[in-house]
Amino acid sequence: MRKLKFDLDIDPNALLCPNPTEFYSKAYLTEDIVDNYRTLPGIKYATKIANANFTNILSASTCEFQAGASALSAITIDVCAVSAMAEICRFDLEQSFVSEQMVKGSNGSFEVASFMNHYWGEMSKEIEQEIEQIRWKGNTTLTGGTVLALCDGYEKGLLGDALVNDVTLTAVTVNNVLAAMAAVYASLATNAPALINKTADLRFYVAANVAAAFRQAVAAGNTNAYLTKNLDLTYLDIKIVVAQGMTSSKMVLTLKDNMIYAFDAEGDGKALKAIDLSDTIAEPKLRTRANMKIGFKHINGAEIVYYN
Fold first, then answer.
1. How far apart are CA 199 and CA 239, in angstroms?
2. Every domain of the chain and the residues it spans
3. Neighbours of 93 (CB within 10 A)
4. For each of the chain's 308 residues, which pLDDT tens digit applies?
C-alpha cells in the first residue's frame, strides 16, 4: 500500500489574512441591508435595469388587433471604485495589549491571531459605517477630501429627480414628528395610492434623530411601554428603517425595491491584501488594502416621497 505524507506547515503571513468572504460580507452588508434595499451584487462597472410600462391595454373585443401603449426603457446603474487602506507599525503593537503574544525578538512576524481578528473586525466595521454615510449623503462634487465625495448617494439623486414627490422639511422634534410622518404618508397615499396596501414591501427610511423623536412621541402615550420595553419601529404597519447616514430630519417613503444598492463582492477576496513590509522594504509595518465597488440609485421616482 502506498503511503502519503502531508506537510501542514503554515506560512506565517497566512495568519495576517482574514476570511475574505466574511470580511466583505460585513463591510458591504449589514444585517438589514438585504431586507431594506434592492441589492445588485457582482457589478464591476455598470449595468442596465430594464423597465416596461403599459397603459390602456384593455379594449373591446373585435376581430381587429389594437395594441395599447407601451414604453421600454433601461436605467443605468453605475458603481464607484473605492479602496480602504490602513497601516500599523510593529513598535505600536509591541507597546499594546498583544505584546505578550508576539514572537520573541525584535524581528518576529505580526502573527498574533487574536489581534488580527480584532484588526479585521474593526476595519470592516469602519468600512460599513463610511459606506452608510456615502449611501445617503454621497456627492462627487464635494471638495476637501471627504469620503462623501467618493460616490453619489440617494439624497443627491432624489433631489435631482422631478418625478419624486417632495414634502417640505421642517426640523423634526418630539412635538412634530408624528405630524411630519403623517404628511409623508399622505403624500404617498395621494400620489401613489396603489402602494399603500403593500406594507410588507414599503419602507419608511428616517434619519436617526427622527427615529429617536418617534420613539419618544409614541411612548409618551404609552407609559407601560415607555418604562419597560423598546417599541417596535413601524408606522401604520410599515417598517421604519433608521438610516444612520441620512441627513438630520430627512425621510423617504417608498418600496424597498426602488432603492438600489449595487456592489461587486465577486472576486473581491483576491483583492484583499495584508502585507508585512519588513519582508519587502525592511519597514516594520503592516499595510492592508481592500478594494471595493459601490453604487446607489433610485428608480420609479413617482413612487417615492422625499421629506427634504
1. 8
2. 12-307
3. 19
4. 555 443 434 344 444 555 656 666 666 666 678 899 998 888 888 778 777 767 777 878 888 888 888 777 778 888 999 988 888 776 676 555 555 555 454 555 555 556 677 677 778 888 889 999 999 999 999 998 899 999 999 999 999 999 999 999 999 999 999 999 999 999 999 999 999 999 999 999 999 999 999 998 988 876 655 555 667 799 999 999 999 999 999 999 999 999 999 988 654 544 566 677 777 777 878 788 888 899 999 999 999 999 99
CA atoms within 13 A on the CB side of 76: 5
Closest CA to 139 of 5, 308, 250, 296: 296
Q: Do 269 and 24 meet the contact criterion of CB atoms below 8 Å apart?
A: yes
Work out whether strand 251-255 and strand 202-206 pair parallel, antiparallel, or are unpaired.
antiparallel
Cβ neighbours for 43, distance < 8 A, ≥ 6 positions apart: 77, 79, 262, 263, 264, 293, 295
Total-model pTM: 0.80
Helical packing angle, 208-219 and 177-191, nearest 10°: 110
Q: DSSP of 149-210, one letter per residue?
A: GGS--HHHHHHT-TTSEEE------TTTHHHHHHHHHHHHHHH-GGGTT-TTTEEEEE-HHH
Homologous superfamily of domain range 12-307: Major capsid protein gp5 (3.30.2400.10)
Q: Name 4's Cβ contacts closer than 8 Å, sequence gap at least 6.
A: none
Secondary structure element (H or E) that encloses residue 62, with its range:
none
Q: How far, in Å, CA of 109 to CA of 16, rounded?
A: 9
For residues 279 and 108, is the Cβ–Cβ distance under 8 A? no
CA distance 65 to 284: 78
